[in-house]
Predict the 3D structure of the following.
Amino acid sequence: MTDSRIAVVGGSLGGLRAAEQLRRAGHAGPITVYGAEPHPAYTRPPLSKELLADPDVLDAEALAGRVELRRRSTVGDVDFRWGSRVVEADPAAGRLTWRSADAGSATRAAGFDGLVAATGLRPRRLPLPGPQRGRVALRTVDDCAELRALLAGGPARVVVIGAGFVGVETATTLRGLGHHTTVVEPAGPPMSRVIGDGPGRAIQAWHEGAGVEFVIGRGVEGVAGTERVTGVVLDDGTLLHADVVVEAVGSLPNVEWLAGAGLDLTDGVLCRNDLSVPGADAMVAVGDVARFPNPLFDDVPRRVEHWSMPADTARRAAATLVARLSDAAPDPTPFAPVPSFWSDQGQLRLQSSGMPALGVPRVDEGDPSDPLGGVLVSYHRDGRQVGTLAVNLSAARQRELRDAAVHLPSTA
Amino acid sequence: MKVTVDLTRCQDHGQCAIAAPDVFRINDEGRLEYDGEPADDRRDDVEEAADVCPVQAILVED
């Protein structure tokens, strides 16, 4: 079925890579990409770093232009519909409804033969009453533009709620810009859910030395202010003054548009290892929204919120979908991508591969209290290494480690 | 095929050297070296390298 129509729902990194990989896998029929944001696909990591710190006066559109993703020449005939939100889809019937972001536009229907779910995440928001003005979450260029506007008046007091990667990156960037910055986190040391308590504490200490304040072990119970935020109230009654509050408390997968499809939507779209979706014949999922088992680790389906995942999953998902639409035999090779991420935090660069969150950390190189000197931490589970974290390790040393790893017999 | 890396953007992440090791490499000083005119049969790897560059510094032209 070479003229089959494929709908890609989601127009960010995952949706773009899916369209490119469908062409690469030989799909010659029509592809429509529906992107809810008004901007062409862009890369998000700079939103908490370079783009937040850019001294030029820039609106959201100009910000989006600076981080727009390169598109392969093979997707010139793909119908990219930016600013088009899919309201619901029925994979069995091959029908979806969508709506343009333009005010007052009607819902329209479209048919498809194959479906790619690439709707990614939205930031979780805290259910706190009080003023909304001065509270932002940082996920889109529009969020970044709003935060930049709130901070345009000069040094401000900023409270960042949540000490995950987005929270810590945002806090260190804002501290570097001269804002008084406090991070509040109820659960434990910064980023500890991913990199462990010890490494998290060491990085916290370094950032504290650079002037970022941390309140660990306290939650936020309320927002102070009437018209606009003036502070946050912690669960011990303490009031922290704030001109701006950044909520960096994690993300929720965008799956509501599939609610009527009879799929397992517990924490994303449940996928098989080849990214096909149980309960739908011609459907795959890619990127942050796809929950799939990775045989490098075990048979537990997980979502992986790393920047490397959309490209990796798009390649395999496209091959799976094209094989299904053309009744070809599926590729029997297990899909076993090595997750990786990086995080720039002031003068620190964290680089990780594997799944550190699954293991117990062991410092292999360097002194965690001196991260600028270069630190390597490995993570172990059941006698096996499951991940690494490098902090300010030189590119040459990273290459050596990589070359050594390539020569090891695979244990996957 | 012509490959250009914006070296003012490149931060030596080295992802390209994993995706297309015969076109991009990190040298012993930790800096990127690359072949600006790779053979056309390297296209798939080169496109892959451009995709995975964290700072999107790689330009591929026909």
Notes: The CA atoms of residues 4 and 53 of chain B lie 13 Å apart. The beta strands of chain B are 2-5, 24-26, 32-34, 58-61.
